[in-house]
Amino acid sequence: MNAQLSAISKELNINTDVCTHRFELALSDCHVTVYSNTTALVAELKDYFRSYPQDTESSSEAANKGLEIYLIERSEPAPVYPWADWAREAGKSGRKDSYVDMHQGRLLHKVRTGMTFFQSNSSKIALGPCLKNINQIVNFINNQYMNYLQQQAYVICHAAAVSINGKGTAVAAFSGGGKSTLMLKLMDHADAKFISNDRLFLKSDAGKVTARGVPKLPRINPGTILNNPKLLSIIDPKEQQHLNQLPKAELWDLEQKYDVMIDDVYGDQKVHLETKLDVVLLLNWDRSSTAKPQLKKINPTDHTELIRAIMKSPGPFFQDEEGGFLMGPEIPALDRYLSVLNNVDVYEVHGGVDFEHIAEIYLSLTQPQD
């Protein structure tokens, strides 16, 4: 046990030695080992990440490489500290995260669930009612991979992505713009591979842009499900009937979320973590318009107001290589995004909202050329 892990364990009155159950994720060149004090939590996570490479029987040598994460299920209330509230991004309200920096790391408290997380470059711990908050545990695991990517000079993006016939396609939109709905519509293509739903990491090298996703299943609202026959099995028929009676505007804004198990819906071998990025679709359509949506190729430098849809703060868990944290929802510089996007084709989607129509137009562009 490293000195920092020992110090924070003593501070929080925990013992990581009880975390005798583990599983491992092989995320491209990043190896993640997750330890827990309960088999039930490991079983839940193994099932959630089943579409990604796992190795529960790997050697102790492999287990000692890469990222190590400790998950401790316990019922004790969160520790009392002089917590500072993490500022929400524009358009979002209410208390969600609070934090205090200590032991060369950051202790974070989820106000609504009572979960507590310790984050540093060498120690990662989650404690509290983990089994009741699987989504937050998944996010914590993914945040470690996201930190790894950003420390490798990838820029964080608020975007979904698929690969179709080897063509990597990112979809971005302002909040509620339908990026997940369009991404899942594109997944109907026989040769489509799921890359990512809400966070995408881009890096340019010699004019080639690499896009890496995170192992996070799409979490979608009921409107997305009701407008895609492949997804209907996610919602009980009686619930479907109730939702179909809601006004369209109310259904669009509904915050209820459902996980999409990609393997169950689209079949095996449909998930990839990485692709060469070729195209970015920026959804700038108008819900009130009856016009058919169209694609217009744009120069990112001339449309920075649209590029802001893809820009995203790394969040309170982000830590740079030197150990520094952000003190608020700061966003990487616009130039970092432009330096990447100027190496791919960027299209604005404008007009009315019609996922079927725009998917049909775009898919015609992805067909292999003779």
What gross morphology would you assign? globular
**Mean of residue pLDDT?**
92
Give the tally of structural domains.
Answer: 2
Low-confidence stretches: 57-64
Backbone structural class: alpha+beta
Task: Lay out the secondary structure.
Blueprint: H1 3-12, E1 21-27, E2 30-36, H2 39-48, H3 60-63, E3 67-73, E4 84-85, E5 97-102, E6 105-110, E7 116-119, E8 124-128, H4 134-151, E9 155-157, E10 160-164, E11 167-173, H5 179-186, E12 192-196, E13 200-205, E14 208-212, E15 219-220, H6 222-226, H7 237-244, H8 248-253, E16 258-259, H9 262-266, E17 274-283, E18 294-298, H10 304-307, H11 334-341, E19 345-350, H12 355-366
Helix pairs in contact: 5-12
Write up what this structure looks like:
The protein has 370 residues and is of the alpha+beta class. The chain has two domains: 3-151, no CATH class; 155-218 and 260-366, Phosphoenolpyruvate Carboxykinase, domain 3 (Alpha-Beta Complex). It has twelve helices and 19 strands. The strands form three sheets. Strands 9, 10, 11, 12, 13, 14, 17, 18 and 19 form a nine-stranded mixed β-sheet that branches. An eight-stranded mixed β-sheet has the order 1-2-3-8-7-6-5-4, with helices on one face. It has a two-stranded antiparallel sheet with strand order 15-16. Helix 5 (179-186) crosses helix 12.
